Amino acid sequence: MQNLSFSNSTSLDLLEFQFLYEEIYAAAINTLSIKKPVLLSVNFIDKDEALNLNSYFRSKNYVPDVLSFPAELSDFSSILSEDEISEIGDIFICYDEALNKSKRYQHSIREEMAFLFVHGFLHLLGYDHEKSSLDEKVMFELQDSILLKIGISYNIVFDELDYLRG
């Protein structure tokens, strides 16, 4: 059974990132000790679609690099223990914005795209770095741990624009 489904509404060939995300997904399931299959959809989108989604669902007027929309689950902790398959939601990744940030922060596009997937996946599981500094620490440590399992050391960097837009 395939646990990840992919959609690409861009004109780019992003197949290499599908393979990368399958590898990251396996590392994340292992790191988080998730016992049952979880299904999620990964959507590669262009700047216009990213802006439209961000405006409509979050009332934000900028192009985001990643958006996560969780499925209607009553309790995320059940994902860790139950035997039934759970659909946890959708991740939307804007390659153009990822490319911009990879250049600005001097990451490879592979590192940036890997980070965005892990970040979005953890949000779907209920992790939220915006709640508190403790929640941020927990989420970012998990991101690092998962990425290190596939050989990526990612240094999170923000500049003033990231905060002004969000």
TrEMBL record:
InterPro entries: MetalPrtase_cat_dom_sf_prd, YbeY, YbeY_CS. One of its GO terms (cellular component) is cytoplasm. It is an enzyme of class 3 (hydrolase). The keyword Cytoplasm applies. The keyword Mitochondrion does not apply. Its EC number is 3.1.-.-. GO terms for biological process: proteolysis; rRNA processing. SUPFAM superfamilies: Metalloproteases ('zincins'), catalytic domain (SSF55486). It is found in: Cytoplasm. Gene3D superfamilies: Metalloproteases ('zincins'), catalytic domain. Keywords: Cytoplasm, Endonuclease, Hydrolase, Metal-binding, Metalloprotease, Nuclease, Protease, Ribosome biogenesis, rRNA processing, Zinc. Binds 1 zinc ion. Zn(2+) binds at H119, H123, H129. Its cofactor is Zn(2+). Pfam families: YbeY (PF02130). GO terms for molecular function: metalloendopeptidase activity; RNA endonuclease activity; zinc ion binding. Belongs to the endoribonuclease YbeY family. HAMAP family: Endoribonucl_YbeY. This is Endoribonuclease YbeY. It comes from Spiroplasma sabaudiense Ar-1343. The lineage of its organism: Bacteria, Bacillati, Mycoplasmatota, Mollicutes, Entomoplasmatales. The gene is yqfG.
